[in-house]
Amino acid sequence: MLKEKKIPRKVDPSRKKAILIADFVSKKKASDISILDIRDLSGLCDYFVLCSGDSSKQVEAIYRETIKTFKKDEIQIHHFQKDEDRSWILLDFFDVILHIFLQEKRAYYNLEYLWSQAKRVRLPKKITSTNPA
Q1: Which of 40, 49, 56, 108 is the most buried (most CB within 10 A)?
Q2: Torsion region of 94: left, alpha or beta (phi above 0 gives left; psi -120 to 50 gives alpha)
Q3: What does the pLDDT average to over 121-131?
């Protein structure tokens, strides 16, 4: 009887980066964290990381800490964009885009619905995210 060879899975560096970003924002008290795999749906990037803050102050703090830490760790940020009331901030890491929302703005734009064909990436257990009911 032949034994099946285990084929090693290729490590997807973009997926690793998305999980790293999700882990970081969870430590900054972001909530409702999710990762969408949009590789088969768009040429824009490979993954979206979505998270929420309870206030515009918290959204801004998550954004500032993310920029500071990732620049220090030499992970390039291509572009960022934020609205005037700090209710939605976007950080573009080339292959991963982080969306930091105020909860109401996230519900309004509902990216999970707009990208409903995207595969959801299972978050590692170490990532703590409070998900609203």
Answers
A1: 49
A2: left
A3: 75
Pick the CATH number of 13-118 from 3.30.390.50, 3.30.470.20, 3.40.50.300, 3.30.460.10: 3.30.460.10
Report phi then psi at 59, rounded to 5. Answer: -60, -45
CA distances from 46 to 4, 53, 58, 75, 112 (A): 31, 23, 26, 16, 15
d(CA 34, CA 131) in angstroms, rounded, equals 10
Task: Look at residue 71 in the predicted model and tell me its pLDDT.
Answer: 84
Residues linked to residue 53 through DSSP beta bridges, in sequence order: 102
